[in-house]
Amino acid sequence: MNITINQVLQSYIDPLTASEYAALERSLLAEGCRDALVLWNDVLIDGHNRYAICRQHGIEFKTIQNTSFSSLDDVMLWMIDNHLARRSVSDFQRGVLALRKKEIVAARSPAPVSAADAPEGENAPKPPMSTREEVAKAARLSSNQISQIEKIQKAASPELVEAVRSGTISINAAATVASLPPEEQVAAVAGGKKLLRQAAKEIREQRAATRTPREPKVHVSQDTPETGNEPWADNAAQTPSEAERLRGEIASLKQKVAQLQAENAELNQRIATLIDAS
Fold first, then answer.
1. Which residues have CB under 8 Å from 31's CB, separation 6+?
2. Residue 37: its H or E element
3. 10 Å Cβ neighbour count for 62?
4. Bridge partners (DSSP) listed for residue 38
5. pLDDT tens, 93-150?
6. Could you give the 3-state DSSP secondary structure of residue 44?
7. 164 burial type by CB count under 10 A (0-12 exposed, 13-18 middle, 19+ buried)
8. 39: helix, coil or strand?
9. What are phi and psi of 140, to 5 degrees?
């Protein structure tokens, strides 16, 4: 039987861990392949790991055809929905799959109707999966998590993507570390889970330290004549000293940022030393 593996479709499947693959292999060797592999014509669309193990050990398997698809896009959407429904799929992979579904749906949807061309009294219809909220709902994640996954896809090095895919680092922390230059991302990943968490923590602390404090607003009443003796006049008189206090805080924060940056450089040097020694 000629079975074709489509690499794009296969990429929709989160790779099994070594222990998961070994458990599946033991099950197939002991009980055989009880569930049929699903094909679309000669393309395998469900059962990639079972197919690989059965071929390796000469285990017999059955196949069934799914004839409900008219295009490869239909197959992709079916596979995505199939995997999104599985509890074993990680949060990161569900987010990636939901974003892929958004791309496919957007490509298949007709051009959006402008408000001017919409029928009178009706708003222009929005295409499905066009908002981050809809993507998040499909993935059973928050909108913020989808935003973080988008950042990881755009800015993360392959090593950092693999770290979040394998669960070594959380989505939140990976999105933070992705703001580093690629070489620093790779160094942090090489340092393991502890170093990744430390890098994410330091970046958050640096961001918090560089935020400019808001200056307090001075309330001026519009209904009271200005006599110079009103309570708000005293507040206004205190404004210069308050501004000086804030400038002092900013200077202190800048000093802390410089200290954190120096510590970060020292940490990167230690990482490089550990990598060279390994």
1. none
2. strand 37-40
3. 9
4. 46, 64
5. 999 999 999 999 988 876 555 555 556 655 556 667 778 999 999 999 999 999 999 9
6. strand
7. buried
8. strand
9. 60, 45
